[in-house]
Amino acid sequence: MSTAEMVVERIERLARISAYPWNLTRRVFSPRQAEAEGLVLAWMGEAGLSSRRDPAGNLLGRIEGRIPGGPAILVAGHVDTRADASPYDGALGVLMGIAAVERLVRQGTSLHHAVEVVAFADDASSRFPVPRLGSRAVVGRIDPHTLDFDDDYGVTLRQAMQAHGLDPERLADATRSVGDVLAYVEVAAEAGPTLEQSGSPVGVVPALTASSVLRVTLKGAAVHAATVPMAFRHDALAGTAECVLEAERIGSSRDRATVTVGRLDAQPVPVSVVTGSVTFGVIVQSSDDAERHVVAAELVAAFNRIAGRRRLEIAVEQGIDPDATRCDPGLVRLFERAVEASGHSVVQLPQGMPTDASNMSVLAPVGSVLLRCRGGVGWGPAGIVDPADVAVGLDVLTFVLAALTTGSDATPSDTLDGHRKSS
Description:
Elements: H1 3-15, H2 31-46, E1 50-53, E2 59-63, E3 72-78, H3 91-106, E4 114-120, H4 133-138, H5 157-163, E5 181-189, H6 194-198, E6 202-205, E7 207-208, E8 210-219, H7 236-252, E9 258-267, E10 277-286, H8 289-309, E11 313-318, E12 325-326, H9 329-341, H10 357-360, E13 366-371, H11 387-406, H12 412-415
Parallel strand pairs: 3-4, 3-5, 5-13
Antiparallel strand pairs: 1-2, 2-4, 6-13, 7-12, 8-10, 8-11, 9-10
Helix pairs in contact: 1-3, 1-11, 2-3, 3-11, 7-8, 9-11
């Protein structure tokens, strides 16, 4: 069995551990999660990694470098899942990290720096409204009130952690200092069609997409549809329809940003009444902050023009508008060399889904690659990565880890064995 086939077999084994037999749902700090973590810890041990669980519930598998206890290169994913998840979502990064480290050990690579494989807790945030709890704890971004958040059954995060054998009062002890981490890398399945269309099995991420969120309210007059002629109406729903089409036009005119109109709340509901008020959300996403801000401003201007022409009142609120997370240029170039060494052309594409890299960028340079997924649905239940593409991803990851941990430019003969060499 090749290394890539072993990774796929382990992913399929984890996928059988689920709260429901009809889909993959493995919530954080649940019995099913504990069962999955037991397997991951065993696989870390088989690969020669010493393993532990930190106070936030993150699993850490470590192989020491020249100086025991010294700073480490981290490669990470997660084992908990959202509801109805892909088997490859999160687990792919963890299991490929374990396999890549095992490959380095087997090849006798002299590690100057430690390497850690991390399975972050609550990355999927399918149980509590705390996205990426594990990496938040590692970088010290945990609000104490977080422990009081509860799930759909009234179980608080504090109670869930206690049931999982953790002490929630020690959550802050998971925080690490800047000097603890030399670099942070991720491997994930692409949640989009770019790699399939390009024909490349792996893409290098220059940045993670950020979002600008607008909440738009149009107000007109709620009048009876049978008694008010069309020319005298101030129809908020008709104005919203025009805004939606204009948002689509603006988004379609841009190559580096997407525009999506979300939920619409219309009042009143009866079909016999002209809609008096509509509130809708718009999300602008891009890895280019300047482009995202320009598009958001263009949308606001267009909505105001529509409201003025239709004699509607308009209010636009903008939510939190974080900057995009930029991957380290040196890591981007290193990943590109690794892709070229594997015999494939370099494709750059932004990571459109939120990941732990956004938090970890506080501590260290971050880098990321995405693997081609059938149908571009890497985070959905149908998401599958072909074993041949997993093999290429392993070659790339091993190349990068070898270069980072030895402090030298690795060569293909030193690090690659996936689909071109026997495991």
